[in-house]
Amino acid sequence: MKKLSLTAAILATTAMATPSFADGHLRIVDEPLELTIQMNHARYPIYEEDWPVEQVARELTGIHLKNDTVGANMRTDENTGRTEALNLMLAGGAIPDIVGSSRIRDFVNQYGPEGAFIPLNDLIAEHAPNIAAYYATRPDIEAAVKASDGQMYYIPYLPDGKYGRAYWIRTDWLDALGLEMPETVDEYEAVLRAFKTQDPNGNGLDDEVPFFARQWPELIRLVTLWDGRAHGSDTYHDFLVEDGKIGHGYLGEGYRDGIANLARWYSDGLIDAEIFTRGSSARDFLLSENLGGSTHDWFASTSGYNRLSSEIDGFEFKAFAPPASPSGRRIEEHRRILVKPDGWAIGHTNEHVVETIKYFDFWFTEEGRRLANFGVEGQHYDMVDGKPIFKQEFLDAGPVNRSLYQVGSQLQGRGYFQDYNYEIQWSNEFALEGIALYDEGDYLIPDFLGVAFTADEQKVYDRTWGTIRDFMLERQQSWILGSGDVMADWDGYIAQLDSMGMQELLEVMQSAYDRQYGG
Ligand code: CA
Predict the structure, then answer these.
(1) Rounded to the nearest whole angstrom, what is the distance from the C-alpha of residue 193 to the centroid of ligand 1?
(2) Which of 253, 271, 297, 509 pairs with 123 at a CA distance of 20 to 30 A?
(3) Is there a single domain that holds both residue 128 and residue 153?
(4) How confident is the model at residue 518 (pLDDT cuts 50, 70, 90)?
């Protein structure tokens, strides 16, 4: 009897998981087919076969992915874009049937034309109607995905929505000190200084941390407050494009002036003394402890901290418009990029490429896209008036992004098209108000969508970029921490970069850009 009810419970669960599309129309193979996968991402270093989302995908398509991840403990570095696990996999000589990773684009666009990955153009045209339909509407994104030989070698993660990060500030601290919302960089500095010196948390201690960030490159982004540029895309330290010309933020005079000011802010205690080391828990810790004053971070997740008002009397953390630079410019450098360098590809030894591209296409069907975005119907969301609506207990279970990763949704190592509706559901009034403010001000600027190199260009890039980037980051951090003076060091810094091949690198970036986007 006990056994029977257990079976009944399992059946009920299975039925609940796939109520509306259990008719088999998404089936790719009659007999279950196993494909191996390498999957790396900072938040999920291996592919988990028991993710609820994967179990449903298996049931619907007949394709069973088997984890075969090399270098599971070598996480992709989101700050530098290094992909050690992918390199280790390649060095091992065995490429699984499917390779999914953050920062996969440069890797497959280099090794795909050399034969390590399957070219996808014809496979998409013949077997992936949903992916093809997407590209038919977005030829610019199709161009951005292609390698130098004109082939696509990966199916990308395609973010949805426009806005990513914003400036945030403790408005109750402003009120406590009788201050207005800062509109210019000078006013912002005055506010941060008041946070530092006037005890806005009211505990009698000099313990406030005026500006903090979960990712230290967000500090560098503040150079935009002095007309500098930092990150040309949502990849930190990326090149930038302005009027069809490739450049780099860390070469500009606005950057130089910005770093000089940030060094001064750091020295004056306006910036978290542990900005380079505190890491991803900075926001959670400094807000929960009533210590942090201002940051630059994502709308939806940051707005959620207003729940702290139940513990911290008067707590209010609101988005504010980018402060104007001395020349009067207000820009928000970060936006949700149109196409990520993340996604998945087909390894060259894969003997089921047609089934694999059909499987990739599954995630672009209505049902697959919903699964990739919202999790499993009945477990994580319900259909209400034809729309997936998260269950309240799922929303209440902690940060929604984290919960989704834990069930196998919103994986950036999977090629899929995000649905912004997944995020609106947990964007509270503070996020929506902030987004409206940013919409009104039109602060966003164009992103650099990246380039793919020829073999010769790749050689220049490989020879120069790693050492150039490391040198720029080392100098940048030293200047902010007070070792050296950026104004005095600047000419030598630029000369050093040129001697490391910076101009040559910019030339190959430009030629690749012109080829890719028809400049
Ligand atoms: Ca205090």
Answers:
(1) 13
(2) 509
(3) yes
(4) confident
Domain boundary among 272, 294, 320: 320
Tell me which amino acid residue 246 is. Answer: I
Residues 134 and 248 reside in one and the same domain: no
Å from CA of 517 to ligand 1 middle: 52
User: Which residue shows structure tokens 């505190």?
Assistant: 278
Q: Are strands 165-170 and 98-101 parallel, antiparallel or unpaired?
A: unpaired
| 313 assigned to some structural domain | yes
Query: Could you give the CA distance from residue 387 to residue 381 in angstroms, rounded to a whole number?
Result: 10
- The three-class DSSP label of residue 382 is strand
- 493 CA to centre of own chain: 30
**What does each C-alpha distance from 185 to 190, 192, 437 come to in angstroms?**
9, 10, 18
Q: Is residue 250 domain-shared with residue 292, that is, in the same domain?
A: yes
Do residue 182 and residue 316 come from a single domain?
Answer: yes
Query: Which tokens belong to 264?
Result: 């001064």
Amino acid at 313: D
For 131, the domain range is 2-161+338-419
295 CA from centroid of ligand 1 (Å):
18
The per-residue pLDDT for range 12-56, each reduced to its tens digit, is: 444 444 444 557 899 999 999 999 999 988 888 899 999 999 999
Instruction: Output the domain CATH number for residue 387.
Output: 3.40.190.10
513 shares a domain with 407 = no
* Global pTM value: 0.81
Instruction: State the pLDDT at residue 251.
Output: 98
Is 247 exposed, middle or buried, given 0-12, 13-18 or 19+ CB atoms closer than 10 A?
A: middle
Rounded Cα–Cα distance for residues 318 and 315 (Å)? 10
458: tokens are: 């790749």
For residues 373 and 247, state if they share a domain. no
Does any domain span residue 311?
yes
Ligand 1 centroid–CA 195 distance in Å is 9
Number of domain units in the chain: 3
Whether residues 272 and 410 fall in one domain: no
* 83/89 Cα distance (integer angstroms): 10
Residue 5, pLDDT above cutoff 70: no
Neighbours of ion ligand 1 (CB under 5 A): 199, 201, 203, 205, 207
Residue 419 CA neighbour count, 13 Å, CB half:
20
**93 confidence band (pLDDT: 50, 70, 90):** confident
Residue 429 lies in a domain: no
**Residue 169 sits in the same domain as residue 272:** yes
Residue 484 located in a structural domain: no
Mark residue 164 as left, alpha or beta (left: phi above 0; alpha: psi -120 to 50; beta: remaining).
alpha
